[in-house]
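Researcher: I'm preparing a figure for a lab meeting and need a structural model of a single chain. I don't have an experimental structure, so a prediction will have to do for now. The sequence is pasted below. Please return the structure as tokens so I can convert it later.
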Amino acid sequence: MGIEIAGSRSRSRIPVTLITGFLGAGKTTLLNHILSEDHGVRAAVLVNDFGSINIDAKLIVGVEGDTVNLANGCICCTIRDDLVAACFGLLQRPELPEYLLVETSGVSDPVPVLNTFLETELAQFFAFNSILTVVDAEQLPQLEGDMARLARAQLGVADIVVLNKVDLVSQGDLDRVKKLVQLVIPGSRVIEVVQGRIPVELVFTEHGDAIHPQQGKEAQQEDPHTHDHPFATWSWTSEAPLSLPKLRSTLEQLPASVYRCKGFVYLEEITVARYVLQMVGKRYQLAESDPWDDERPRSEIVLIGGRDGIDSEALQHAFDSCVGTGDDSESPVLRLVRKLAPELLSPKQT
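Model: Understood. Here is the structure written out token by token.
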């Protein structure tokens, strides 16, 4: 996917993730899991069939028509027939959601929904983030005809493939399903889960949570393995400005075992501004954030991947190579900024 360097407007737009997948794949189970977690994000969820969401009654604090308010700050609403109207309805709430999850119908093509966020007036208020496609590990190989074509079309647009119900198939069948997924979408990020239980860190992209306070170079020496799911984290920091072309190249060549990348970035092309990096699957973007002002600039990046798919030595080398040299022959953006807007650079880089 391409890269977008957005301006200040993007900081106020609400990030959107689409959750798609064929009938019975486990989309609603995944949503129930997200809604039940104490993640601290005030998320809104739009679904076609409100009755299918089986939210724990202990989490419900109020019901207003087609909207359920949850104790963790999340809300769940029906789309009915008009996605645009439902989204604008969310914008009228006293407290705006910090994130939006949209579950598409199991027999629908997610592309028109995606285009609604990219090509309509919603683009002023919502920033499209990612597509998660949920796949039933047992069901997918058995689909035929139009059903198989639709399921594969849903797969083809995924940023992350959530391979669900892996406990219901043998290892041999699981390997065959993964090969089928890779045939449809080569190089895809595939997460194997049971009952849709993905770590919520892979979903939400809150800027304030881009890096945790205790993470940094010292965190690289810690055991990256988590205790409750087969995922690992790795972090990297640098006080030297990074080259945008080198960073782009590194992000585009990350292994398929890296599902998520987030952090703050100090670029040599525009040293006065902090940039927020968000990456889900293969889709990534850099958005301008607050200026550094009196704070010492530094890049802080966190990766989330498969427990056995984080090669700390290789990642260290890859991100160390992103440090810029100040040579504008290696960066057209740096050359242009020096010529047209040198005020965006620190004195030593003009």
